[in-house]
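Here is one such protein, fold included:

. . .
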Amino acid sequence: MTDTFDLIAEQRRRVAQCLEGLDDAEWETPSLCRGWTVRHVATHLCMSFVVSTPTIVWKLVKSGGNFNRISNDFARSEPARANQELVGLLRDNATNRFTPPGLGPDAPMTDIVIHGLDVSVPTNRTIEVSAEAYRRVLDFLVSPKASRGFVRPRMTKGLRFSCPELEWHSGEGLLVEGSASDLALALTGRRREEVSLRGDGVDSMRRRATY
């Protein structure tokens, strides 16, 4: 089994490579992350590299533990950096081991995979994600920890998730089945018409999501 931080580093380098190939217009493309452009996403991914851990912890306390609010404020208020500076920050800090308090390395693993989809799908790029990485992301997204900023509370209650391509299954109840990327996008409430899910639990899941 590959160390989670090694998977994170690999994925950060792949996202950096994708961003490096975008033109100026693509950097301003709306991402799949609601309200954020590709630039906002890239800026967010660099937050833990330019903001000290004590500062992040202080901001978490001040915000009542709302990591999403901190991320959104940073992505929107951080002075604009050159495209290639953001690429360089992401690549140079690929092995950074910061984890949000109480969430562990599966949180940044999930963050880089989901945000990679956020920028690659609307710009018609492909960012490779290993099967092992996707399994860890899906395991995290159906766990109680994911309700702290990744998945809406009670989103997965009474649902059984299945990803045949990974031979991955989780939960009990109504079936929600799809590819690894589609399940990850749906669980995190991304708006995407192309998301293809199957099963008698899909409607229930979508009613709970931020669609």
Summary: The chain is about 50% helix and 10% strand. The longest strand covers residues 159-163. Strands lie at 159-163, 168-171, 174-178, 197-198.
